[in-house]
Design a protein that fits this description.
This protein is an alpha/beta fold. About 25% of the residues lie in helices and about 25% in strands. The chain has ten helices and 13 strands. The strands form two sheets. Strands 9-8-7-10-6-11-13-12 form an eight-stranded mixed sheet, sandwiched between helices. It has a five-stranded mixed sheet with strand order 2-1-3-4-5, sandwiched between helices.
Length: about 350
């Protein structure tokens, strides 16, 4: 990287740095670049996850380790610096104690940790906001949406044949999609905080709901494993083995499950349940995005991907907007979002 990186170029660089942090967890991905008065880079940092130094503090530490004086520096940050004490101290205090004279950030922090911009201005720091806000809004869409509305972002996953079947007539379903699709799905699991299924899926498929690497090794991050329903998870089920914490939610109300997970600071839930659970989340208007893995196969019979939605005519169809399409080996992944929050039935 050019050591004389100008302030305007530091903004996309901060977004790049932010992407190095984990997408999962209660905290957002944040990147920071410190510049001297001539626009030279003094230090860079990003947030490595809950309990670790925030991006601004990491950048300050990098600058000091390099022997740089940060007094009078400009901090370019993707998110408004925090102003509360949690596992770490407030970034506003760290910036003020370091003598930073100017802070440029893209998006205001909507969480209880927000308010840092006002604190810095009161202390005499020049603060500028709204720069590259679209890029950061895209990067932090899941986290920002979850914090702003108080409930997790919900991704509904479906793996089907071209005729929409999730299993054959005899109940067999492994494997409808290819190894490439399954590897991609594990990559999605690695970015979420919880995976939700119903007891029907647990009893029929005995899923582990873990994150595995391409070498079939368990990943460091394992999401919560959430089961909706009143039937007990069998003592010998793989869900009781190694992996994320098992959370059982009695009943079949997805809103109750989402509220419970929100209380645990879950920002992103991946729903991998069968047709019944998929329909419940869709009927409740809780799905933000659908990941539909389509295999070039036909079964002609067997359960459909989604259970009854109460739709009687095509005019009532739940319409979605395609936002992306990926080729995964022989399969295709369609990423789509509902165009209305609730079914009009």
């Amino acid at each position: 990287m050019d050591p004389r990186l100008r302030a305007r170029d530091a903004r996309p660089r901060a977004v790049e740095l932010a992407a190095r942090g984990p997408a999962h967890g209660p905290n957002p991905q944040v990147g920071a670049v410190l510049l001297d008065r001539d626009g030279r880079v003094l230090g860079e940092g990003w947030h490595r996850g809950a309990g670790t130094a925030h991006a601004e503090v990491a950048a300050l530490a990098a600058a000091r380790a390099a022997g740089h004086d940060v007094a009078g520096a400009t901090a370019v940050v993707t998110l408004e610096p925090c102003d509360t004490t949690g596992r770490t101290g407030p970034c506003t205090r760290a910036l003020l104690e370091a003598g930073v004279a100017r802070v440029v950030h893209a998006v205001a922090d909507p969480s209880p940790a927000g308010g840092g911009a006002a604190r810095l201005r009161t202390a005499g720091v020049e603060v500028e906001s709204g720069l590259l806000d679209d890029a950061v809004e895209d990067q932090l869409e899941v986290w920002l949406t979850s914090v702003r509305r108080g409930t997790p972002w919900v991704t509904l996953k479906m793996a089907t044949t071209l005729d929409g079947r999730v299993a054959a007539q005899d109940g067999t379903s492994r494997w409808i999609t290819s190894a490439e699709s399954r590897a991609h799905a594990h990559g999605v699991r690695a970015r979420v905080d919880a995976i939700a299924v119903g007891t029907g899926t647990v009893l029929a498929d005995d899923p582990a709901l873990t994150v595995r690497s391409a070498e079939d090794r368990a990943a460091d991050h394992q999401p919560l494993r959430v089961v909706l329903g009143d039937r007990a998870v069998p003592a010998g089920a793989r869900l009781r083995g190694e992996g994320g914490e098992l959370v059982q939610v009695p009943g079949h109300d997805p809103a109750r499950a989402v509220a419970l997970l929100a209380g645990r600071q879950v920002r992103h839930v991946l729903v991998e349940g069968g047709p019944t659970v998929a329909a419940a989340f869709l009927r409740a208007g809780l799905v933000d995005e659908v990941h539909a893995y389509l295999a070039p196969a036909l079964l002609g019979d067997g359960p459909a991907a989604v259970g009854p939605l109460g739709i009687a005519t095509i005019a009532q169809a739940l319409r979605l907007r395609t936002v992306d399409v990926h080729r995964l080996g022989p399969d295709v992944l369609v990423v789509a979002r509902p165009t209305q929050p609730h079914l009009e039935v």
